[in-house]
Amino acid sequence: MENEPHIPPVEKEKAGWVGILTSLVVPIIGIILYFTRQKTCLNPRTYVLAANVGALIGTAYIVVQALHGKPVGSLLPLYMFIIAVLVLLYDMRKNR
Fold first, then answer.
1. How many CA atoms lie within 13 A of 56 on its CB side?
2. pLDDT (0 to 100) of residue 50
3. At what angle do helices 17-25 and 27-36 cross, to 10 degrees?
């Protein structure tokens, strides 16, 4: 056992600002980053939070457009918000 090389522990890094901004603009990317970076990132929940904010902004835009009588293009931001909230609930339940 003394001849085995010492393997240093893997240092986790923080969520990067590029990933956070991308999650804000395209919420599905935040959800994907959350699941792919769970073991290598100190704060993977940041990606889902940014996805929630982006999806909320998109949903608010849809609501404002609908209230002004303009046609609503897509309900995708609303679906992304629902998915991101479910992922946050999953994360909170897992971390209990």
1. 8
2. 92
3. 140
